[in-house]
Specification:
This protein has about 270 residues and is α/β, with parallel strands linked by helices. The chain contains 10 helices and 13 strands. The protein has helices spanning about 35-45, 60-65, 70-75, 85-95, 110-115, 115-120, 140-150, 215-220, 230-240, 260-274; strands spanning about 5-10, 30, 35, 50-55, 95-100, 125, 130-135, 155-160, 170-180, 180-190, 200-210, 245, 250-255. A hairpin with a 2-residue loop joins β2 (about 30) and β3 (about 35).
């Protein structure tokens, strides 16, 4: 049912300057693989084969990465390094990639709205590559697709419990329990102060959205920071009972921060050594 995944990838990555002056933050590697490739592989695990990427100025490396590199492949052909290209070659050969540019940085909601031309009129997934997720038995997006199949025509956001003093960094949700790990969302607040947070359940960078989100986003006025917030758009849908929060099984690394990036690097290094 979900065949397309949208990747907002137009941000500047200022927390990683000067490294991101010329390198897209989505292309920063965890070991030998860029963040965005981890996200694409997660989408593939959920049987998604069409990747829609919202880029910006200075992001050509993303398009080059998800393309054939005939000169490089020729140079390493029949050498011990040839197998290092297997994963990305399989992705390029079996997935479709399309791109559009976000001309102005006006928030995640605006980035998703910019991707409308790539998505069309069908439900779709959204992955923020900054949030690198590792599922326990199934990937986080695979888990969410299964939830969507049980609750079609609902938008789904992935959430995890956080220390309440960190609520100012996240969109926070509250809701009514439907199942042990699923809530019907009744309230959503973008980056509230801890005293104003309705819960300690934070939205992380995984969504499944129905196509009418685009109409809602077009009507959503700029919110916190003067940006069009996806949280504000989803709140209007939550008031109609159409948004679910899913407490996923797995681990998330906030690779938009240096601490999270280092934590993820250490985790995958130890995992590879094991």
């Amino acid at each position: 049912m979900i065949k397309k995944c949208l990747f907002p990838a137009a941000g500047y990555g200022t927390r990683f300057l000067p490294a991101t002056k010329a390198i897209p933050k989505e292309m920063l590697p965890i070991l030998t693989k860029p963040l965005l490739q981890y996200g694409v592989e997660e989408a593939i695990s959920a049987k998604i084969d069409t990747m829609a990427i919202v880029t910006g100025r200075g992001k050509r490396a993303i398009e080059d990465h998800f393309d054939r590199s005939y000169e490089l492949e020729h140079q390493i052909k029949d050498t011990s390094k040839e197998n290092l290209m297997n994963d990305i070659r399989n992705i390029v050969d079996n997935c479709t990639f399309s791109y559009t540019r976000q001309a102005r940085m006006l928030g995640l909601g605006h980035a998703i709205l910019t991707g409308k031309t790539l998505i069309g009129d069908a439900p779709f997934a959204v992955i923020l590559a900054d949030d690198l997720c590792v599922g326990e038995k199934k990937s986080v997006l695979q888990q969410m697709v299964e939830v969507y199949e049980r609750y079609p025509d609902h938008c789904i956001v992935a959430v995890e419990e956080i220390p309440k003093e960190q609520s100012h960094k996240y969109g926070i949700v509250a809701g009514e329990i439907l199942e042990d790990d699923i809530l019907k969302v009744t309230d959503m607040v973008e980056k509230p102060e801890p005293k104003d947070a309705p819960s300690n359940l934070a939205i992380i960078g995984r969504y499944i959205l129905t196509p009418d989100i685009f109409d809602v986003l077009q009507k959503t006025k700029p919110g916190k920071g003067g940006e069009i917030q996806i949280t504000d758009a989803l709140l209007s849908m939550a008031k109609e009972g159409r948004v679910l929060a899913y407490k996923f099984s797995g681990k998330r690394f906030d690779c938009g921060s240096v601490d999270g990036f280092v934590e993820a690097t250490n985790y995958f290094y130890e995992k590879d050594r094991g």
